[in-house]
Amino acid sequence: MRRPSYADDPLKAWPIVKWAGGKTELVDDLLAEMPEKIGTYVEPFAGGAALFFALASDKKPRFARAQLNDRNAELIAAYRAVRDQLDALVEKLGTYKYDKDLYYKVRDVETRELTDVERGARLLYLNKTCFNGLWRENSKGRNNVPFGTYTNPKIVDPDGLKRASRALAWVRLTTLDFEAACEGLGPSDFAYFDPPYVPVSKTASFTAYSANGFSRADQERLVDLLLALKKRKVRAMLSNANTPETRELYKKLRTKEVSARRSINSDKTKRGAAGELVVMNY
Q1: Largest CA distance in the chain
Q2: Beta-bridge partner residues of 172
Q3: Contact 78, 49 (CB under 8 A)
Q4: Alpha-carbon distance 20 to 227, whole Å?
Q5: Which of 191, 200, 181, 178 is nearest to 246 (CA)?
Q6: Measuring CA to CA, which residue among 42, 77, 13 is closest to residue 183?
Q7: CA–CA distance, 157 with 20 (Å, rounded to integer)
Q8: Strands 254-262 and 272-280, sheet pairing
Q9: Can you tell me the distance from the alpha carbon of 279 to that of 82, in angstroms, rounded to the nearest whole number?
Q10: Which of 83, 110, 141, 215 is the most exposed place for a label (fewest CB within 10 A)?
Q11: What is the pLDDT along the chain (282 residues), one digit of tens a residue?
């Protein structure tokens, strides 16, 4: 899916962060499988929220209400800052510059006492200037991605942030477990799951978007949740790596094989088209 210029569509909003497993390339495939009318739309693993921004930018939005959830508290703080304190966030971002020493100084800041604006500006700055746009946390919840090499990276994008702020205006933002994020959903609602993927190989097991990680037991718990939602007549869609293990996990549900370009990998030769599995419980 080509990202148009701002001039192409003055109301369009896009993800404001580059996130491992982002769905920009899959949006059209996902939209084609979704219902036209939705009560509450939920993303229990929001990440870059590409599908949400596509839906929110539609001239006739499909959902009446929306919730973005992610266990990464820094990401949700950034979304709150974009939604509620846009001007202050843009001003704070304007104080940062592309500088290696500053990058590591900002990366090592303890965030627990920071405001949403400070946390949001920090995350966006690190995301724009880190290696390959990757966000990764160690077991202590600290970002450990090295400085990236770019030519004049765009740290502040006021127009893009304004568009995202407009899309997020009435969105509920939470940091719940994915099961808790789906409590209370009913037959008119829809959940889209974009979890850390089942590893495609023993050397491709990155699941550290946050300190919580994502285990095999979590993958199985997610399968059970989609089946439980089906019994409650709550429609749900999920994306995951197209592997034998994934196909076995979701063999009781409808699946569709698609291809998406992946740009986040430490080895440039391994970036490119990747097989993905779209799972639906309806």
Answers
A1: 54
A2: 67
A3: no
A4: 26
A5: 200
A6: 42
A7: 20
A8: antiparallel
A9: 31
A10: 110
A11: 455 555 567 779 999 999 987 788 999 999 999 999 999 999 999 999 999 999 999 888 899 999 999 999 999 999 999 999 999 999 999 999 999 999 999 999 999 999 999 999 999 999 999 998 888 888 888 899 999 999 999 999 999 999 999 999 999 999 999 999 999 999 999 999 999 988 765 544 444 445 567 999 999 999 999 999 999 999 999 999 999 999 999 999 999 999 876 554 445 544 455 689 999 999
Interaxial angle between packed helices 50-57 and 158-168, expressed in degrees from 0 to 180 and rounded to the nearest 10: 80
Closest CA to 267 of 131, 152, 151, 96: 131
Written as one letter, the residue type at 263 is S
Secondary structure element (H or E) that encloses residue 149, with its range: none
> What is the spatial distance between Cα 164 and Cα 160, in angstroms, rounded to a whole number?
6
Q: Enter the tokens of residue 23.
A: 């769905």
Length of the chain, in residues: 282
> How far is the C-alpha of 257 from the C-alpha of 58, rounded, in Å?
25
Query: Using N-to-C axis directions, what is the helix angle for 73-84 and 116-129, rounded to 10°?
Result: 110
Cα separation, 255 vs 187, whole angstroms: 21
DSSP 25: G
pTM above 0.70, yes or no: yes
133 phi/psi in degrees, rounded to 5: 65, 25
CA atoms within 13 A on the CB side of 179: 10
Q: Which of the 8 DSSP states describes residue 185?
A: -
244 half-sphere exposure, CB direction, 13 A CA radius: 1
